[in-house]
Write a structure and sequence with these properties.
By secondary structure, this protein is an alpha+beta fold. It is built from three helices and three strands.
């Protein structure tokens, strides 16, 4: 696979490699949730979303989404389509 050149491609690349993504994987990316939403709505990528819980360093509780890849082969095809012009 070609290396990702956009944020959307990078999120998809990580999904393919790891099988899931969370905001923790992309702490530097303010538009992470938007990229996940674009992959789902614009490209039809199927993701299974579950909620997880954690505590920050101050002991405060928070929840976050884990987006799991449903079909790896269709995700690879999508990645190839997105990177063909780059």
């Amino acid at each position: 696979m070609k290396p990702p050149l956009t944020n959307e491609q990078e999120v998809l690349y990580t999904l393919i490699k790891k099988g899931y993504v969370t905001f923790k994987d992309f702490a530097y990316l303010p538009g992470f949730r938007t990229r996940v939403s674009q992959l789902k709505s614009n490209h039809g990528l199927q993701l299974e979303t579950t909620m997880a819980q954690a505590f920050n360093k101050f002991g405060n509780h928070y929840k976050y989404a884990i987006h799991k890849l449903v079909d790896k082969e269709s995700a690879k095809k999508l990645y190839d389509r997105l990177t063909v012009n780059n």
